[in-house]
Amino acid sequence: xxxxxxxxxxxxxxxxxxVICQLRFPPILSINTTEPADFQEAxxxxxxxxARRQEAAPPRIxxxxxxxxxxxxxxxxxxxxxxxADNRWKLNVTRDFIALSTVSYPGWEDFARQLDKPLAAFIxxxxxxxxxxxxxxxxxxxxxxxxxxxxxxxxxxxxxxYTGPLSQGDVPEERFLSCGSDxxxxxxxxxxxxxxxxxxxxxxxxxxxxxxPEVKFIFDMxxxxxxxxxxxxxAAALETLHGHxxxxxxxxxxxxxxxxxxxx
Length: 264
Fold this sequence. Notes:
Blueprint: E1 16-24, H1 29-33, H2 37-43, E2 49-55, E3 60-62, E4 70-72, E5 77-83, E6 89-93, E7 97-102, H3 108-126, E8 131-142, H4 144-147, H5 160-163, E9 180-186, E10 191-200, E11 216-229, H6 234-251, H7 255-260
Antiparallel strand pairs: 1-7, 1-8, 2-5, 3-4, 5-6, 6-7, 8-11, 9-10, 10-11
Helix pairs in contact: 2-3
């Protein structure tokens, strides 16, 4: 199945590698040209580390449909980064989005609390007209070695909707060099999800770094609400996305995998 009504469960061995919340808004040009000193003061206790970098913006094509279309290079985009003291939390602000991410996901309630203060400060200081896209992404990596399931095939752990050809049974799992799937599914009248799943190995691109030989199962959910969401409804929109994420995530699990992840 794709969705499950299994009761919401917190797993001690949860597979979340990274969780990202991003809210996009119509460009606020002053963010690109003036350092956010007032915003930093509002969040500096929780995010004391600061950095900024210039990122190349995609070119803009003008005159499409005419005889002489032109490709115009756009000014670089300034990305302001604020980090927690322990480097577990990262907040990014540019002229058209604010994003919070973590590589140590503590659960939804703590994540939402960590977002509350910087989002409220951002709305108060910059007054975005509305949010054009509210997004919540979960990058999950299931490790059989970590869960003590080295002797189990992925078809015993992940629902057939996400294992595709692996579930056919006529070809052993070890013969698949790659196997994945991508889908975009409508969740309700305003929400969608892009889901990527499949087997894969993590690559460490650092010079001379030792590579992880284990084949893991990737379950990457990018849920989003498009349209113009009033700033006052951003928290409610994220709660809605989180509810959909739980049903998608639980729909991918077998009871064997649930037990191995040590539910509380």
